[in-house]
Amino acid sequence: MNSMSSYMNAPGMTSTGHMNAHYVNPVGVSHCSVPAGMLQSPGPAVQALPPSMSPISPPPYGNMPVVNPGFGQPCGGRSREAKPYRRSYTHTKPPYSYISLITMAIQQSASKMLTLNEIYQWIMDLFPFYRQNQQRWQNSIRHSLSFNDCFIKVPRSQDKPGKGSFWALHPDSGNMFENGCYLRRQKRFKCGNSTGTGGKEAARGKTGSVTSSSSGEPVPCSQAAHLKPDHLKPDHPHYPFNHPFSINNLMSEPPVQHRPEPPVQHGGYGCLDPDTSYYHGTCSRPIVNST
DNA sequence: TAGTGTTTATTCGCTT
DNA sequence: AAGCGAATAAACACTA
């Protein structure tokens, strides 16, 4: 969490830390979307990707669309460590929450599920920022995986022994970032059932650990319990990312071409302008052209 | 023993 | 101000 507060002084930043500038990367993709540059410019890091991951190539760091002075400020300027901006922008914090990073990592993998370490590697391969302070953010990653219902554990198959389970996305979690806001979801995804107590949080404090079954079977929630790999296939009807604004589509479409319905955007430290594909700062209301 | 996973607590920023 | 989402820290348990 270094080098962040100084971004407030960057062009486009209001005194309140809102990001009003429309930052456009060299390929014209919004910083708020999943970087389309992922699909371009194979970089050396791709070779470090584990076999389970699809050959999506991180871009050269110099072209990273998500890192930009004045934009790397996450969470609306939330920072605890005031440190003057000195580093290259390739080491600024990407404008994605950990949840969105995990989602991206899982989503781009061929098997739609990754081990914890693979998630670490994907993030570090793509975002140099996360090559530092690994203990800090990796703890946060683990916390996010455990805490959020949108992530489910998939046990390793016997032919893939190793440490840790695979992590996948909940089949119903696909629209978490449908409004283009990758820092703050409209609503936290909760795995619900008819009683409203089916999520991980419901499991916490009642039946104990989500994964405490001695058999090693993950029982994170009622819906995850029946998750099968088929759900993780793109052609499956429950595939989480069929929304036009989904990460999957953002990653696969030319960035300037997708012009979804103007979303009603809530929450948001930063959102995507559907007309321009430019990044907007705080946008709790639908984006309209000022007259 | 290191890595993984869970849980709790705290803090912060944004929205309502 | 309250509620919420997110980031961070830390403690603890489990497991390969």
Automatic annotation (TrEMBL):
Q: Which GO terms describe its molecular function?
A: DNA-binding transcription factor activity, RNA polymerase II-specific; protein domain specific binding; RNA polymerase II cis-regulatory region sequence-specific DNA binding
Which positions fall inside the Fork-head domain? 93-187
What SMART domains does its record include?
A: FH (SM00339)
Cite the InterPro entries for this sequence: Fork-head_N, Fork_head_dom, FOX_domain-containing, TF_fork_head_CS_1, TF_fork_head_CS_2, WH-like_DNA-bd_sf, WH_DNA-bd_sf
For the biological process aspect of GO, one term held by this record is: anatomical structure morphogenesis
DNA-binding region extent? 93-187
Q: What protein name applies here?
A: Hepatocyte nuclear factor 3-beta-like
Q: Which domain of life is it from?
A: Eukaryota
Q: Which GO terms describe its cellular component?
A: nucleus
**Cited SUPFAM superfamilies:** Winged helix' DNA-binding domain
Biased composition regions of type Low complexity, renumbered to the chain: 207-220
**Keyword Ubl conjugation annotated:** no
